[in-house]
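Contributing new records

If you add data, match the layout below exactly. Sequence lines come first and carry their own label; structure lines follow with theirs. Keep one chain per record. Anything else will be rejected by the validation script.
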Amino acid sequence: MLGAPALAQSCAGAGQTAWPLDATLKVTDETGARLRSEAVAFGTPLPVIRLEGNQALICLPKGAGWIDLSEVALAKTATAATLAPDIYETTRSTLMFWRRLESLERFLGGDVGVGGAQDFTEVIVAPSPSAFVLPVLQTRTVVRSGRSIELIRVHLPLSAEATKVWQQMQAGRADRARPLVILDHSGSSGRFGHESPLDLVRHLDDDPFVRAEIEAVHLTDDGAVYTGVTTLQLAVSDLPSGAGAQPLADLLGRFEPVPGRGVLVLAGGDVDLPDVPVLEAADLIVAQVTPELNPDLQAAATRAEAVVFIGFATDSTELIADALASREGFRTVSGNRAVDYADLFAAQLSNGFLPFLPTDLDDAGALPSPTDGSGGWTALPVWTVRNELILEVGPIR
């Protein structure tokens, strides 16, 4: 055992730093016997006195103790990347983070598809009350097109409150049927290519509502059916082709009626909506995408008790996006109070943590749970590109 003077000297002269992965560490003696649990604040560098097997003797606020290496990430120095408030408030590019170095390198090599996709993206939502600090675990320099690029592996903090909000959002998404978009490109809408349903849907990705998962169905003039699950950020024309010709009534008959389900029908003015259960139970929005004065679609929308009918207009995309964002049936969560992304970001900011979102918004496990569910945190080891205009890297203060 080290005495107090020797311990202080060992901590001061420690050569490595341990960065905790979670708010609570399990402290043991050298035999592995549990001594205590000790809470630590995020961004606290813990000097490493000695490494033995899968354990490390580290300096803790309550005294030295042995920690399993699975609970910490080791770094050569106590260095952090800092995003200052004055930088945070400026107009700039957002930070992106990758779990795997190989994915980031593929992205830098020009792969903007699945192979190089980032796992998390910073969200700038409000002025920061304080500087965001990200402990640096590793650094690496790569050369692309003759230019050196510095990559850093950092700890990205996630608060327990943010995890709780995320889980509530995912539970709400699981309880709610996917909103449904019917793109009827038959009849008159097929003759107005510049304002076709496909054109409108392709441009709806500019609106925040499209974080919802959408079931999109495209009925063409010749009766061919295209169907699939998308987020509307995927062009509907890329969806796989179905087989056979189906009239609109049969097409809508494929879907079970779900009370309150969001259904958007984009069609020409000469389309007469069928009387089918999926529309009767829906939070229904009908939009006319052709300029002719035929009243059939509006009359059908009235008969189906649509909550919103949008006539043809030059700003149809904006009107449709506003309508979708205003209706409960098109939101991503359910419940008496819609827990949304603003709650998630607020939970991060209240802890002094950087707000961010996973790329895969449908993956319930994208954000892991801290072991301490009451005000704890967990750290995600991720890679990012060091932008010297945004991130200042240096000894932690």
